[in-house]
Amino acid sequence: EDTSDSLGNFEDVDFGGIATGLGVSGAAGGAQALADSSRDMRESIALTAETLDEEDEAVTDLVTSLSDSTLSTEEAAQGMDLFSRFAADSAEEAAEFTETADLIADATDDSVPGVAQLAQVVQGVDGSMENFDENGADAFVAALRNTTLDAGQMGQVLERSREDIQEMGLGAEESALLLSSFQEETGLSGRRLRSEFSTALEDADGDLEQFAEDTGVAVESTDDLDAMLDESAGVAQSHADAMADTHTEADTMRAIADDLRLEFGNLIQPISASLPIVTALGAGFSGLSAIGAGSLIPSLGGIGGAAAALAGPLGIAAIAVGGLA
Question: Over the stretch 115-155, which tens digit does the pLDDT of each residue have?
């Protein structure tokens, strides 16, 4: 069969127009997906900025400065939001607490939100966040690595026994080390460890010596706990470094992709309302080109070019970040 007649049916089709239209639609769709993928991060940043009366841009800068191969941009933003709710008076302070939480999380294979739960209990027990720093992190990491508890569970134990701990005159970090010693002595784990530790504290009625006598724990004074604090110095950083050593260049690239997703998401957000129009325009341009309407409407090419100029860079950004992620 002679195909020349069939091919002739396509002579008036503007294939360049179809390609441009599809490119515009695809770029707009990619840009929208990019904006959607950064929504949680942008929401956390907006909430942090509102709570602390800061500018979004300042919070964003701190978030991206915190993120690395061990802390995703999303988790950094979430951490700053959490600490802004109960502990921080400024964005810088929220970033410092998030950094400490990340140190503990890295050293114990936990998460920043999980450590934030522990931090909130620390504030309740101590009455401040003064000891939630690198030195305090050593005590919590030493205790967590010596038990089967995660940070959230340890926080539950300390919260449950807050009054007994305060009656003994102990702080949160000292209590965490006392829990660790109790676990070593008894060999208990899980729910039973949490329950019996709380019961032993209650039975001791605020007397550390009585607690030691009842449980067999070799801690009879706060001096013993202070010695344990000194012995734990540097343990958080050393374990965090060991974990970081397992990460690869791919992890670093993912961290960069996270930052780019946030930055491009912030750029795309103001014009995101136009993206459905751009997408429809691209589809319409492809359809009109397919029926040869490009020759009937001379300005159509200009419209398509303008749409491509808008969507093109956003689509390229979306593709670039998608490839890294």
Answer: 999 999 999 999 999 999 988 999 999 999 999 899 999 99
At residue 275's C-alpha, the angle toward residues 271 and 278, to 5°, is 120
Average pLDDT for residues 14-28, to the nearest whole number?
A: 47
- Check the CA dihedral 7-13-15-19 and report its sign: negative
40: left (phi over 0), alpha (psi -120 to 50) or beta: alpha
Which helix (H) or strand (E) segment holds residue 28: the answer is helix 15-37
Dihedral sign (CA 271, 276, 277, 282): positive
Q: What is the pLDDT of residues 148-188, one digit of tens each?
A: 899 999 999 999 999 999 999 999 999 999 999 999 999 99
Regarding pTM above 0.85, the answer is no
Instruction: Decide: 17 and 289 in contact? Cβ < 8 Å.
Output: yes
CB 123, CB 86: distance < 8 Å? yes
Angle between helices 235-244 and 91-108 (to 10 degrees): 70
CB-CB contact of 154 with 147 (8 Å): yes
* Cβ contacts of 110 within 8 Å, gap of 6 or more: 104, 144, 150, 151
With beta carbons less than 8 A apart as the criterion, state whether 253 and 324 touch. Answer: yes
Q: How far is CA 264 from the centre of its chain?
A: 18
Q: How far is CA 273 from CA 269, 277, 304, in A?
A: 8, 8, 18
- Rounded (10°) CA dihedral 12, 18, 20, 25: 160
